[in-house]
Amino acid sequence: MARIERMNQGLRGRLDELEQQMFVLKISYEKYFCGIERVEPYRDREALRRVIRELSEEGIKNATQQFKYQGLKARFQIFELYWTRNLKMMEAGTHPKMRFKADKRAAVAASQTNEERLSAEQEAVLKDRQERQEREERGYRLVFEKYMEARKQCGQSADLGFDAVREALSKQVRQIKSQYNVESVKFRVVVEEGKAKLKAVPVAPK
Fold first, then answer.
1. Percent of the residues in the chain that have a pLDDT greater than 70, as a whole number
2. What is the C-alpha separation between 184 and 38, in angstroms, rounded?
3. What mean pLDDT comes out for the span 101-121?
4. Of 153, 9, 30, 17, nearest to 90 (Cα)?
5. Rounded to 5 degrees, what are φ and ψ at 92?
6. Buried-most residue among 111, 121, 178, 205 (CB within 10 A)?
7. Distance between CA 187 and CA 199 in Å, rounded?
8. Would you kindly state where each structural domain of the chain is located, as residue ranges?
9. Rounded to an integer, what distance in angstroms lies between the CA atom of residue 103 and that of residue 87?
C-alpha cells in the first residue's frame, strides 16, 4: 500500500508541473500575440503535447488523478484552438490587437495636420513591413509554381490549391523559426526517388 502511495505522489508532482508549464506557455503566447515576443513558443507547445501523450499512454489508475489529468488535457485543447485561431488571424492581418493598432493609427493620422503626420522613419517602417509581406507572398507563389511544375514532370498529381500549400508552408516556417531561433526560412524543390518534395532550409542571420 505504501508503494502505491509513493507512485501516486510522484504522479501528482508531474501533474502539478504540467499545470504550471501550461500556465507559463499561455503567458508566452499572449506576449507573442501582443508583439512583446518575436518568436512563437512552438517548441514549448510541442513539449507539452508530448507530456500529455506520455501520461495518456501510461494509464492513470487513481480516479482523482485521472480526473485532474483529463481536466488539464481538455484545458490544453481549448488553448490550442485559441492559439491556432489567433495565429491564422495574425497571418491574415485580422487579429483584433493588430486591427486595433491599425485603426488607432488611422484615427490619429486623420486628425493630424500635414505637419503632424507620421515621421519619415515611421513611414519607412510601415512601408518596409508592407514590402516584406508582399515579398513573402511572391516567394510562396514562386515556390508553389515550381513545386507544381516538378510534380507534373514526376507524374504526380498537380491538383493542389495554393492556399492549402501556403498554409502548410507557413506552419512549417513558424516551427522552424522557433526551433532554430531564426527569422527567415527558404524552401527548395527537390526530386527524391522520383517524387517532387519541398525542403525547408533555416537561414541564419548575417
1. 83
2. 12
3. 59
4. 30
5. -85, -10
6. 178
7. 5
8. 2-101, 132-203
9. 20
Q: Which cell is 86 given?
A: 489567433
First-residue to last-residue Cα distance in the chain: 61
Cell numbers representing residue 36 in the block: 512583446
Residue 21, all three cell numbers? 508549464
CB contact burial 34-65 (16+ within 10 A = b; e otherwise): eeeeebbbbebbeebeebbeebeeeebeeeeb
Give the C-alpha separation, 89 to 100, whole Å: 13
Confidence tier at 3 by pLDDT (50, 70, 90): very low
Q: Rounded to an integer, what distance in angstroms lies between the CA atom of residue 77 and that of residue 87?
A: 15
**Cell representation of residue 93:** 492581418
**Which residue has cell 507524374?**
155
Helix, coil or strand: residue 113: coil
